[in-house]
Amino acid sequence: MNFYLTTLVKLLTGVPLLLQLVSLSVSLGALLAVALALMLRSSLSPLVWIGRAYVFVFRGTPLLVQLFCIYYGLAQFGAIRNSFLWPILRDPFWCTILALTLNTAAYGAEIVRGGLQAVPHGQIEAARAAGMSGVLLFRRIIFPIALRQALPVYGNELILMVKATSLASIVTLMEVTGIAYALASETYRHVEILACAGLIYLSINFLLTRGLALIEHRLSAHMRLPKLVTVDATHY
Questions:
Q1: Is residue 234 part of a domain?
Q2: Residue 220 maps to a domain
Q3: Which of 29, 64, 68, 177, by CA, is between 20 and 30 Å from 140?
Q4: Alpha-carbon distance 126 to 70, whole Å?
Q5: What is this structure's pTM?
Q6: How far is the C-alpha of 119 from the C-alpha of 172, rounded, in Å?
Q7: 84-104, pLDDT tens digit by residue?
Q8: Overall domain count for the chain
């Protein structure tokens, strides 16, 4: 029991880095996903084809390959090594953030696009009849409805991103999986240590799913049946 407790304490030191990777990549990826989704729905053919090509490439190739190409591949180009981006691209942390962001944006773009397509056309026409248009229409009508439609599916993407952070250990980042590998190489108790690491990921994803369920519940208040009010007949 002492071994498990000691292992968990050591593994928990990697949780802040894990959460940092997830929060930054998901936040940046969500912004890029919205931009890509708008490109996919654009009336301009070049923007549509650029968006489709991006989604096709990053959804069709493994995240591990993308991470290797960014961390190891970009260093081969002298123009990049001599550019102002090199202090960032030589850092494994920012390379991992970049890989995770680009990857999740491709999946998120399709999720957001599906949410936008699910917005009832009648509500858009009603908003236009009320005088809304452009940014106001998107901010007050289209985006809130699309968010509510896309949230359950996007929650799965968030869970996948939490698990994807384990790949950061391959580029020397000591998050939970990286620490687990180091401990396992020292003690040769791979099963116990990796089971503890899995428990940490499971706990984080459990809290994440509960939080998403709460947000979805609050956004869907209009879909819940109102509580029936019972009247005590003895008062009459």
A1: no
A2: yes
A3: 29
A4: 47
A5: 0.85
A6: 44
A7: 888 888 899 999 999 999 999
A8: 1
